[in-house]
């Protein structure tokens, strides 16, 4: 068609009316954002000559995305969530906040409400034949390297099929399987006794995988374990560790892998005494360094809708 209408008065008036910028009513912030995003879309339609058929394919795609409940999954897969991390990293750098364990994305599969234990928690509730025993332990320290008492370390990860409890399409896992929370004692130590996870793959029939297919991308993550670390004194940390040796470690569809978040996996014996399912087990030491509050507050706390459940 090769026509350009974006700069016409008719199109600009339409944009202004639709976003309602400058109105007494509504949210000025939402008006500002909608005006910009809708304007960028209008301009892209002109520039790329996006056809009506393509627009309606996109509109109906959003319906499927919502039906599948995958908007947050797509946000991870398109790098939107990683982009927010890049911005928070840059903000920290500009504020000269250095050190600390690197953040990496939360992802869409956290569930609030895991039972809180003192220092140690065994979190494999359901048997999983294909998963070997794993201990993840470490020390939470503050900005001066001092152990932090009373830090709440939460972790969550997938089973040997790459499925997370609460979101498992097979229904095989009970609530909070492979999800735990421990409070550190004076020594700052935490420990989870669990099973080795396998990487996640997007639902094959879902909207996210549908778009990834068209982009010629896969929808898989390497094996990983998520963490939240929360205290009164320091900023909350959202991070993950990767399981060393996973072939997808640097090919994560959600771009969450970071150099400092690949701790070694060590072969150990003595698991029976720890209540593990075999005497031989694997151990990962993951020490966690927190960063200071900024003017007494956590300036990078992220609020988003999160699932919750009761044990
Ligand atoms: C996951 O387990 C995950 O961590 C992310 C970011 C996206 C999908 C599944
Ligand atoms: Fe995950």
From TrEMBL:
One annotated GO biological process: catechol-containing compound catabolic process
A Pfam family of this chain: Dioxygenase_C
Cofactor: Fe(3+)
Keyword Oxidoreductase: yes
Catalytic activity line of the entry: catechol + O2 = cis,cis-muconate + 2 H(+)
Domain Intradiol ring-cleavage dioxygenases residues, every copy: 136-164
CDD domains reported in the protein's UniProt record: 1_2-CTD (cd03460)
Keywords noted in UniProt: Aromatic hydrocarbons catabolism, Dioxygenase, Iron, Metal-binding, Oxidoreductase
Gene that this sequence comes from: catA
EC number(s) stated in the UniProt entry for this protein: 1.13.11.1
PANTHER family hit by this protein: DIOXYGENASE, PUTATIVE (AFU_ORTHOLOGUE AFUA_2G02910)-RELATED (PTHR33711), INTRADIOL RING-CLEAVAGE DIOXYGENASES DOMAIN-CONTAINING PROTEIN-RELATED (PTHR33711:SF7)
Biochemical pathway: Aromatic compound metabolism; beta-ketoadipate pathway; 5-oxo-4,5-dihydro-2-furylacetate from catechol: step 1/3
Name recorded for this polypeptide: catechol 1,2-dioxygenase
Tagged with keyword Ion transport: no
Matches recorded under InterPro entries: Catechol_dOase_N, Cchol_dOase_prob, Intradiol_dOase_C, Intradiol_dOase_core, Intradiol_RC_Dioxygenase
Regions that span the bilayer: none
Organism lineage string: Bacteria, Pseudomonadati, Pseudomonadota, Betaproteobacteria, Burkholderiales
Family: Belongs to the intradiol ring-cleavage dioxygenase family.
UniProt xrefs under SUPFAM superfamilies: Aromatic compound dioxygenase (SSF49482)
Molecular function GO terms recorded: catechol 1,2-dioxygenase activity; ferric iron binding
């Amino acid at each position: 068609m090769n026509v350009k209408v974006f700069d016409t008065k008719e199109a600009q008036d339409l944009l202004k009316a639709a976003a309602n910028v400058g109105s007494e009513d509504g949210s000025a912030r939402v008006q500002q954002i909608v005006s910009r995003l809708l304007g960028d879309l209008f301009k892209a339609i002109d520039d790329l000559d996006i056809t009506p058929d393509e627009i309606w394919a996109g509109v109906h795609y959003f319906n499927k995305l919502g039906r599948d409940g995958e908007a947050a999954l797509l946000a991870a897969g398109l790098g939107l969530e990683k982009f927010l991390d890049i911005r928070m990293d840059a903000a920290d750098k500009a504020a000269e906040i250095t050190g600390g364990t690197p953040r990496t994305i939360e992802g869409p599969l956290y569930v609030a409400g895991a039972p809180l234990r003192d220092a140690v928690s065994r979190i494999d509730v359901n048997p999983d034949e294909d998963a070997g025993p794993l201990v993840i332990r470490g020390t939470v320290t503050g900005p001066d390297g001092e152990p932090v008492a009373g830090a709440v370390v939460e972790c969550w990860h997938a089973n040997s099929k790459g499925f997370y409890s609460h979101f498992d399409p097979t229904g095989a896992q009970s609530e909070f399987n492979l999800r735990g929370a421990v409070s550190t004692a004076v020594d700052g130590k935490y420990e989870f006794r669990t099973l080795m996870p396998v990487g996640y793959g997007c639902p094959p029939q879902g909207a996210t995988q549908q778009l990834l297919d068209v982009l010629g991308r896969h929808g898989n993550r390497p094996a990983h374990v998520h963490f939240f670390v929360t205290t009164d004194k320091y900023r909350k940390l959202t991070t993950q560790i990767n399981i060393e040796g996973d072939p997808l470690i640097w090919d994560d569809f959600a771009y969450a892998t970071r150099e400092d978040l690949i701790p070694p996996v060590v072969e150990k014996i003595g698991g029976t005494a720890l209540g593990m399912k075999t005497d031989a087990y694997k151990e990962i030491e993951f020490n966690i360094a927190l960063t200071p509050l900024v003017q007494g507050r956590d300036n990078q706390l992220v609020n988003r809708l999160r699932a919750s459940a009761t044990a």
